[in-house]
Design goal:
This protein has two domains: about 90 residues, Rossmann fold (3-Layer(aba) Sandwich), CATH 3.40.50.1100; about 140 residues, Rossmann fold, CATH 3.40.50.1100. A four-stranded parallel beta sheet has the order 3-2-1-4, with helices on both faces. It has a four-stranded parallel beta sheet with strand order 7-6-5-8, sandwiched between helices. It is α/β, with parallel strands linked by helices. It is built from eleven helices and eight strands. The two termini are about 30 Å apart. Helix 2 runs parallel beside helix 3, helix 5 crosses helix 6 and helix 10 crosses helix 11.
Length: about 250
């Protein structure tokens, strides 16, 4: 994702600045290290140490901000404005969303007969990119925790709105408002589903115990929609449940 943003423009000597609950920050740190760039990543104090430590391990400077993603974003923007660093947004920047859309292309290449793609949603960059790529070739279904309903609330209001966030998946899906760029892709999103935290955690345990896939809670939301009955496939339907994010401690 960040490679498309960091190679699209000239990056100043001050490097790049990003805010992240953890996963995007890790991607920025990795891309910056590969490109020989400085990176400063602002993360909320609600992010688990497994994510914060891995960002630092790639050589980025990590600054922990009290609160949730929105608070880290505000600090990141203040610092970018004062330092001259290039701001890279986790989900509301065209180059980043385009990079995330490459996942949609991979799905279509690997599962050409897919009929439905379930995607977890936070700020909306991932589903925005995937939906923009897939469009009418398959239906894209959004899955969010009940305590982080950014897209669900936007669809009800007819526009992105501020929501309260919390719960087990907030470190990855805890944006308080859907991005404007992802909102433009709402036309290609068939449904928006909400799942409870209990179902997410149960799906996380099931993935590990049954499939030996270690995923963080946010990544398990699509599985929770299937296991909990939020989404019931029709006979013959070919479903892809995207599991994205493994920054968690062993179960």
């Amino acid at each position: 994702m960040p490679f498309s943003a960091l190679t699209a423009v000239a990056v100043p000597d001050e490097g790049v600045a990003a805010a992240s609950g953890g996963n995007f920050g890790l991607a920025v740190a990795y891309a910056a290290a590969r490109l020989g760039l400085r990176a400063t990543v602002f993360v909320p104090s609600t992010s688990p140490e497994e994510k914060i430590g891995r960002i630092a391990a790639h050589g980025a400077e990590v600054r922990v901000v009290p609160g949730y993603y929105q608070h880290a974003l505000e600090e990141s923007r203040r610092w970018a404005a004062s330092s001259g660093a290039l701001e890279v947004h986790a989900f509301d920047q065209l180059e980043v969303v385009a990079g995330q859309g490459s996942c949609g292309r991979e799905i279509m290449d690997q599962v050409p007969d897919v009929t439905t793609v379930l995607v977890a949603v936070g700020g909306g960059g991932l589903i925005g990119g995937i939906a923009s790529w897939v469009r009418d070739a398959a239906q894209v279904v959004a899955v969010e925790p009940e305590l982080c309903p950014t897209l669900h609330a936007a669809r009800e209001a007819g526009r992105p709105v501020e929501v309260d966030v919390g719960g087990v998946a907030a470190s990855a899906l805890g944006a308080s408002r859907l991005g404007d760029i992802p909102w433009a892709a709402n036309r290609w999103i068939a449904q928006s589903l909400l799942v409870p935290d209990e179902s997410i955690l149960e799906s996380q345990r099931w993935l590990w115990e049954t499939c030996r896939v270690l995923a963080e809670p946010a990544a398990c939301a699509p599985i929770a929609a299937l296991a909990g009955g939020g989404y019931t496939p029709s006979p013959g339907e070919r479903v892809v449940a995207l599991i994205s994010g493994a920054n968690t401690r062993a179960l």
